[in-house]
Design brief:
The protein is an alpha+beta fold. Helices cover about 50% and strands about 20% of the residues. The structure holds adenosine-5'-diphosphate.
Amino acid sequence: MRQSRLLDLRQDEFIAMAGHELKTPLTAIKGFMELLSQRKKYIKEKKAEEYLEAMGVQVDRMTQLVRDLMDTSKIRTGKLVLSKKKLDLDNLLAEVIKTIQPAAEGHLISKNTRTPVVVEADRDRITQVLTNLLSNAVKYSPTGTKVIVSARKEDDQVVVSVADFGVGIKKEDVERIFDPFYQGKRPMWPGRGLGLGLFISSQIIKMHGGKIWVESIWRKGSTFFFTLPT
Ligand code: ADP
């Protein structure tokens, strides 16, 4: 097949996938709106709050998808710009854990380092990378398992790690896991995302002059690492 035809096909596949991923939360929101409007006269306040909360979750999901698409476009056109300042990664890790923990039902996220590690980095973008790695660790491991993070100084760099005890990644997938849209050979399920998170994270780390990689054992768990220069 000619290269351009192959690219067209991928593009079609991508549009279908993006459309589907965006439509699923929209359908859910519409459903909750209909329930609220049909029952508005006799619905209990607690139930209405539940529906509104569920709608909020779907809105957040859509916002995240749109953000990922926009970031990918910025990366591809060279328009993603960093705003670097001094930043304590140990502190930032604690903050990100605090934000994620309430939504990570049944997972215990712990940090096993406690020393300040200062780097010159873009706070929002590194927060985005940590959020991506931590929410993946939760998403791809069973309830009741631990997620362990650490940030330590090694020579002239800082090494951050996020370890989970979940499904793991097959050897043949490890090399491609940071490619855009790559999701491994697993069944699709709604809400799985577009496979852009790790691509965006890897580009952000590379732009900082760091490295990102994963060590994983299929069905045992994965540890994602990234480095940042000090
Ligand atoms: P998404 O989660 O939206 O699919 P990502 O780019 O964040 O996109 O991840 C790409 C793929 O990498 C996922 O679809 C999944 O197959 C795999 N993956 C990422 N993190 C983990 C993890 N902690 N454990 C196992 N597989 C993972």
